[in-house]
Structures are given as structure tokens and as C-alpha cells.
Amino acid sequence: MLERRTVFKAALAAGASMLLAACSSTESGNATSVDGKPAEDAPKAKITAEPAVDAKDAPVAKPIVVKVTEGKLTEVKVTGEGDKAVKGELAADGLSWTSSEPLGYGKTYTYAAKAMGTDNKPAELKGTFTTLKPAKEVRATLNPADNVTVGVAMPISVKFASAVKNKADVEKALKVKTDKDIEGSWGWLSETQVDFRPKEYWPANIEVSVEAKLLGVDLGGGAYGKADVTTKFKIGRNQVVKINTPDHRMHVYRGGAEYKSYPCANGLDAEVDRNTPNGTFIVMEKKPQAVFDNARYGYTNVNKKWACRISNNGEFIHENQDNASAIGKTNNSHGCVNLLEADAKDYFDSAIVGDPVEIKGSRLPGPTKSDVKDWLYDWPTWKSFSAVK
């Protein structure tokens, strides 16, 4: 009897197992338990994001991209500190969302995205990520400024508040656009300054736009670009000053033809340090009144009119009526180009910042200590200053 009862219990257990199996259903992929409650299947839709949830040190310049497979996004919200929403746009096909504004350094952002799958089941993505926090944020400035008109030799200059180590990465973030094809190159004049100049003078009367996409650029040594900077300016008429110092004349050309010619006195020929230096300079600034001091040569608080600076080494084109007897006859200045008052005013009124001033005939080479020296180098030398090879 004991043996028969054991067999009966085993058979009963097997029957219970078969009964349980008979109470299950796989119709439409939904399982039903014995107590009548549905067991949830995972939705087909899958939402992913870049940067990923829980990412650390995410870049600030790359856009956030949220994508879905096997479904369509129905809602995407990315918020920063203070629950401020990050601007972005959902693609027309509903498959992706892309942010349209840069992120902040050292910030935490939160995802809240929803989608409806091809199986009509909802899916969602939640979580946070953090952006990188630089050891130092470095600001840059860009010249020329917006909406100015400059001469055909005007360089574009980007200056940084501290030294740049990753110069090639910075150059790749700089873009120059014009309405004509221009051959030009960036060149590093110091650890904190990179300039762009064309091979030849800019064509007259064109527009130039510059984008320096520096936010998020690794400058090296833990420093990153603080912000993007842009500018848009115009190149004016072609006006070039040409001076051969022994001739005591200053010639002004417009569009390649002589426009004006003035008698002048240049730097003292007998003393090389007082020569007006050779080279191609640009008009850097204009002052109706200027005060000149040079303790080395014993003069201070000398007031002159209609002064156009052409070098940070101290050279100007300016009025010197007190030297009228030498103008057109003798070179006796301390390096400046002296003009009669009426001529200085006439030239001053015609000049704009960025006009080239070409000087030859003296024994003094151009001063390369100035931060505006772009045209003192020949083209192969200038190109060698680029960090992008």
C-alpha cells in the first residue's frame, strides 16, 4: 500500500503541473498568470542619448542628441540648473531630438524623454549627466570689430587672456568667410595671439565674416575656451601709401593709380636708429591731436596734429609744420613721416585703419617686436607660423 500511495502522489504532482500549463496564454506576446494579472513585456522602443545617462566630463560644445529605435519620440526635455530647459528641436520624423544651444561648464543636466513604440507601448529615458569643469576658462577677443570698414591690409587678430598650448586645435576652430576666394593663412605671432592675413591685400569692397568657435576647445594645460566670438566687417577702397625715403615724397595710390603726392621728411638718414624703418605697415589708429615723448632724444609733450600711427614701435605719419623747411628736402625726424599741416589733414581725412603703408630706401629693417607686424614677413615665412601643417 505504501508503494501505491507514493506512485499516486507523483501522478498527482504531474497532473498539477499540466493544469498550470493549461492556464497560461502567449497570445500577442502577453503572458497571463494563474491569478489573472498580466506580466509586462518590455516595450520595443528604445531611447538612447549622447551624452549617455551618468556620463561625466561631457563636452560643452557638442550638441545633445536623443534618439529612439522601434518607435517615435513624443516628448524630450533636457533641463539644467534651476530647471531651465535646454533649447532643442525634434526632427520631423520623430526619431531624434537635437539641442541648439551650448552647454555650461561643470553643470548637471537631466533627461526626461518619452516615446511610443511600434508596439503601442510607451518607453521613457530618465537620468543625468555632467559636463567637464576646466581648471581655467580663457577668454578671447577678436579684431576687427563688427560692422567697421577697414583697409585692404587689415589682419584678423584673435588674442587670448593666457598662453595657448594646443595651437593647432585652436586654428581648426577659426573660420574666415568672404564673398570671393581668398588665399590666406593663420599665423601665431606669440603664445597669446594668432592672426589671419591674405597672401596679397584683400580685394576692395568685400565683406568678411569670422567665426572663432572656441567654447569647449582644449587650449592645453587644463584651460578651455570660455566662449565663441564672431565678427563681420567690410574691406573698403584700395588705398596704399608708398614712400621711398631718399625721395622725400609720400605717394598715395587709389585702386592702383596715383591719387595724391605730398612732400615729406622721414627719419634722419645719418643715424640708423632714427631711420623710418623699411617694410609694409598698416594705419593702426588716427588721432586729430597727439602728444609725443621721447626721453632718449630729449623731447616731451610735443603736440602734433593729424597723426596716423603705423607701428607700435613709435612711427606715425603726422603734421610737423615746425619742420617745414626740411619737408620735401631733408630727412631729419626721429622716425616719423613729417608732412605740412594742410597735407597732413588732407591725408588724415582720406585714411582708414588697415590701409597699407609701404616704406623702402632706409637702412633700418621693420620692427618685429610690434604686435602688428603681419606684412613684415614674406608669404612662405608667414605660412610657417601656422600650427596646422
TrEMBL record:
Swiss-Prot/TrEMBL keywords: Acyltransferase, Cell shape, Cell wall biogenesis/degradation, Lipoprotein, Peptidoglycan synthesis, Signal, Transferase
All residue ranges annotated as the L,D-TPase catalytic domain in the record: 239-360
Transmembrane segments: none
GO molecular-function term, one example from the UniProt record: acyltransferase activity
GO BP field: cell wall organization; peptidoglycan-protein cross-linking; regulation of cell shape
Pathway assignment: Cell wall biogenesis; peptidoglycan biosynthesis
Origin superkingdom: Bacteria
InterPro entries from the UniProt entry: Big_10 (IPR041280), LD-transpeptidase (IPR050979), LD_TPept_cat_dom (IPR005490), Transpep_catalytic_dom (IPR038063)
First and last residue of the signal peptide: 1-21
Cellular component, GO annotation: extracellular region
Catalytic residues (UniProt): H318, C336
Stretches assigned to coiled coil: none
PROSITE patterns xrefs: LD_TPASE (PS52029), PROKAR_LIPOPROTEIN (PS51257)
Matching Pfam families: Big_10, YkuD
UniProt protein name: Lipoprotein-anchoring transpeptidase ErfK/SrfK
